[in-house]
Amino acid sequence: LAITQPPTIQSYGGVRYLADGRARPEVQVAYWHNIPMRGVGSARSKVAAATTRQAEADLQIAQADSRLAAALAWVDARVAREIVVTAVGDAEALAALAGDRVEAGAGGPSLGAIARAVVGSSGAELLRALGSETEAIMGLAHAIGLSPDQRIEAVGPTELRLVGPREREVLAAADRGHPSLQRTAPDVAMAEA
Question: Is 190 exposed, middle or buried (0-12, 13-18, 19+ CB in 10 A)?
Fold first, then answer.
């Protein structure tokens, strides 16, 4: 005999009024116990299977989220790197052009001052871009489960070059290292048990 729920005991207290108008205290005690008429093993198995399927679905969602987070972080890092490269190239080209014009006598001293001011502005943009790149690289490292002290660089239009792991290792690291996945691991282990 399977016990699906513990037995229940309840008591009630109150007043009972008799036909002649007198009141008496009354106490009732009730006990009940559910006795299943059929086995509950298959229902429990179905619940366990459903819980496992739900945990697996949650895991797949977390994996997709972690891959998306890694891809978006890589794009952010790559764009930030392009801004840095462009800012450096623009500042150097502007300084060279202004210097050539001043040396050739085509521009007065004010042209050199304006060029230096624009170069200074480009330098400020470069610092901002370097900060954005650092932030994006830290986001990428977090998304794939690397520690902040590990060196990583986003390169190329479709590839990720790390100092250390390669693409498959990065995807595997994203599958196991992203915080969202780490949160779901206990649920999966509990469902599989």
Answer: exposed
